[in-house]
Amino acid sequence: MNTQAWIHHFEINTRLNDHLELPDVPCALPESVRGPLAASIATFQLGESGTGSRLRRYAREVAPLENFRGYQRAIDLFIAEEQSHSQLLARVVGHLGGTLLTKQWTNSVFRRLRFLVNLEFAVQVLLTAELIAEVYYGTLYLRADDPVVHRMSQKILRDEMKHLAFQREFLSERVATFSPIGRWLWRCQFQAIHAVTATVVAWDHRLALRALGVSPADFRRRCLHAWERFQSRLEQSVETCASGQTAIVSGVAGAGLQRMDR
Ligand SMILES: [Fe+2]
Ligand SMILES: [Fe+2]
Fold this sequence. Notes:
- The chain is mainly α.
- It has helices at residues 3-18, 31-47, 53-59, 71-95, 105-114, 119-143, 147-175, 180-204, 206-211, 216-261.
- The chain has one domain (3-13, 28-245): Ferritin (Up-down Bundle).
- It contains ten helices and no strands.
- The longest helix is centred in the last third of the chain and has 46 residues, at 216-261.
């Protein structure tokens, strides 16, 4: 994994969020849109506000591996970027006249789920949220007729697309070490958890989605398409990593045989 490139990316990009200027205009959205949208964005704001302490702890597991050198630093910067999203979203909730949340049930479930198994699962649960966030911020960008929401969603959408690439690079190297049946099982549970989560999020945010002219069923469908796109790219990366690992193993074995011949 090219952790140095990610460290460089996060170091530069997160600063842009902290200094992102939002248009200085009052909210002109009708009440029927403003209220549900503020409540919906407040839920995402809470979701982005975690300290990531357990994820950091899990990241130590791969620290001794040569191909993940620097991953811990990249994870620290990644978490800082998510927190910068939380601050940016808090500014937008204020602009919409909404109230920030301290607790929300879907967020609590997500946080508990994320730390049940291991690093791969923690990253997968995060990734599930980010795949849904990609569709959510894309919907806000296209549908919310407000310059502040537009600016925020454009920036976070760009960041989240990079986050998807970051998680894909990590997972492709890890999943490549699984057996074929292990990979198949991993894919099945990932798809199932994503589908259930997309259904719950579509229902939970139905008022805001409808106010923006998107049905919860359509939102869910778009989320499932996003998963399929991601999974097919992940599988390509896994194949590339797996063939690279096979080449290394056969190279080592070949070198060993040559030494035995001497
Ligand atoms: Fe985020
Ligand atoms: Fe993210």
